[in-house]
Structures are given as structure tokens and as C-alpha cells.
From TrEMBL:
<protein>
    <submittedName>
        <fullName>DUF4111 domain-containing protein</fullName>
    </submittedName>
</protein>
<dbReference type="InterPro" id="IPR043519">
    <property type="entry name" value="NT_sf"/>
</dbReference>
<keyword id="KW-0808">Transferase</keyword>
<feature type="domain" description="Polymerase nucleotidyl transferase">
    <location>
        <begin position="24"/>
        <end position="79"/>
    </location>
</feature>
<dbReference type="InterPro" id="IPR025184">
    <property type="entry name" value="AadA_C"/>
</dbReference>
<dbReference type="Pfam" id="PF13427">
    <property type="entry name" value="AadA_C"/>
</dbReference>
<dbReference type="InterPro" id="IPR002934">
    <property type="entry name" value="Polymerase_NTP_transf_dom"/>
</dbReference>
<dbReference type="Pfam" id="PF01909">
    <property type="entry name" value="NTP_transf_2"/>
</dbReference>
<feature type="domain" description="Adenylyltransferase AadA C-terminal">
    <location>
        <begin position="186"/>
        <end position="243"/>
    </location>
</feature>
<dbReference type="GO" id="GO:0016779">
    <property type="term" value="F:nucleotidyltransferase activity"/>
</dbReference>
Length: 264
């Protein structure tokens, strides 16, 4: 397993989190806040001020009560007055539920696109592994000291499910890949999964794409450059017709799925 690099909070995110912590402390008593943590692309050192989500986990000593829920809705409404606040995605997880999966947990407060709701959100082995090993501690107990364990086998099983169930099904639906977001998502996600299987660490979408650019054959080069264009310069002209791009994406996805299967 590769050594994990800990990244610092980008300045813009730091300012947002300062406002967030002030608001949070008006809702919860200090002893109820175990800690606030950043995971996702920011923790992986791949923050893009224009596009990155602010993925966070706030750990609390006990469940959120009704009054607190309403106050959290108001806090996120206020924070979403800023562009970054609108891109806050996160969860309020009771200490006793750390390391669990959605089917083992009661509904909790989560935030999607800057709006607070009740239900279940983005929890899987990758979430927990990234939080524990690469999470940035904003306040409270250090992420690596949080009282839960997550094994690498759990991460691989999550990746396997992602490939065998989710992407294998999507690969049957050619029409999806006429949409740019699906082209990008399919390619960069599979790149991340391949990197993870090969190097036993979790990397950003940017790194996943770079990995594919370095190791894929010439027949995929134009598609990979097109995905880089979608990510970095979406207003620039397409390098491939929509039809050819969709067809290539589907074929490449099937090729990458087979490559992953050889690694299980």
C-alpha cells in the first residue's frame, strides 16, 4: 500500500469552513461536536475552485434532534449564498454509527448541493477509508483517531460492486454516452478504480484520468483527450462526433471492466 499524503485545506475552503464551524457551534453544544472532516477530492489534493464539491463528514456524539435539524437546514441555506457553500455535500453521523453502512443506520441529516435533508447519503467503504486515512480534520478529534476500523478488502469489494453491478449495467445503455457527463464519469471513475486496484490507495478523478492516459493504447488516446477537454475546457470544440464518442466510451468501458476482472 502506498504512503498516504495528507493535504492542507485550500484557502477558499478554509474560509467557508470557518463560517460553517461558527454556525455549527450555535446549533450544537461543544461536547456534542466530535469533529468536522473533509474527504473527497479536496482531501485527495485535487481541488478545483470552479467545480469541486466540498465533501464533509460532521461527527456528533448523538443523533440530531428535530430542533437541530431545522437549524441545520437554515445554516446550509445561509452558507449556500456563496458558490462553494452551494457545493457542500456531507453527512451528520452519530459517533456510534461510524464505519457502518446505510442499511445498518437510521436516517440521518445529510447535505446535497448545499441543501440539508433527512435520509441516507454517500456512505460506503471508500468514504470510510478516505475519511480515516486521508481525511482533513477541520476541528475536533483527528480523523485517524476516530473509533472505527475499515479494511482494504472492504474497499476492493465496494470497487468490485461498482464495476460488476453499476458500470456493467450502464455499459449496456449506449444512449447514456451521448451525454458528456456520462462520458466523463465512466472514464474517470474506471481510471480511479484501476489505480486503486494496482496501487492500494485512493486517488482523485484527475489522477485516475492521468493513469489511463499513461497506460492505455493509442486507440483510446483521442477519447481520453476528449475526456480531459470535458473536465478542463468544456467550452472548447469536441474532438469527436457525439456518435463516435458514445461508441468509443462504451467499448472502452467494456475493455476496462474486463481489465478490472483480471485483478479481482
Amino acid at each position: 500500500m502506498e504512503n498516504v499524503v495528507k493535504h492542507a485545506l485550500p484557502k477558499e475552503v478554509e474560509q467557508l469552513m470557518e463560517q460553517y464551524i461558527v454556525g455549527l457551534k450555535e446549533i450544537f453544544l461543544d461536547e456534542k461536536i466530535v469533529g468536522v472532516y473533509i474527504y473527497g477530492s479536496i482531501a485527495l489534493g485535487a481541488f478545483h475552485v470552479e467545480t469541486s464539491d466540498v465533501d464533509f463528514v460532521t461527527v456528533i456524539s448523538d443523533s440530531v434532534n428535530e430542533a437541530e435539524k431545522q437549524q441545520l437546514v437554515e445554516l446550509h441555506k445561509k452558507l449556500s449564498g456563496s458558490t462553494l457553500g452551494k457545493r457542500m455535500d456531507g453527512m451528520y453521523i452519530p459517533l456510534a454509527d461510524l464505519g457502518k453502512y446505510n442499511d445498518e443506520m437510521n436516517e440521518y441529516v445529510y447535505c446535497a448541493d448545499g441543501k440539508a435533508n433527512i435520509g441516507h447519503w454517500d456512505i460506503n467503504a471508500v468514504t470510510w477509508w478516505t475519511l480515516k486515512n486521508q481525511g482533513i480534520t477541520v476541528t475536533g478529534k483527528e480523523a485517524e483517531d476516530l473509533p472505527f476500523q475499515i479494511g482494504w478488502d472492504d474497499v476492493v469489494n465496494t470497487m468490485k460492486y461498482n464495476v460488476e453491478q453499476y458500470w456493467s449495467e450502464k455499459a449496456k445503455q449506449l444512449y447514456l454516452f451521448f451525454i458528456e457527463e456520462w462520458v466523463e464519469s465512466a472514464v474517470v471513475t474506471m481510471g480511479r478504480i484501476l489505480y486503486t486496484l494496482d496501487h492500494k490507495t485512493i486517488v482523485s478523478k484527475d489522477s485516475g484520468l492521468q493513469y489511463l492516459l499513461e497506460r492505455s493504447g493509442e486507440e483510446w488516446e483521442l477519447l481520453l483527450k476528449e475526456v480531459a477537454r470535458i473536465r478542463q475546457n468544456p467550452k472548447e470544440k469536441r474532438m469527436l462526433s457525439r456518435w463516435r464518442r458514445a461508441d468509443m466510451t462504451r467499448k472502452y468501458l467494456l475493455h476496462l471492466i474486463e481489465t478490472c476482472r483480471e485483478k479481482w
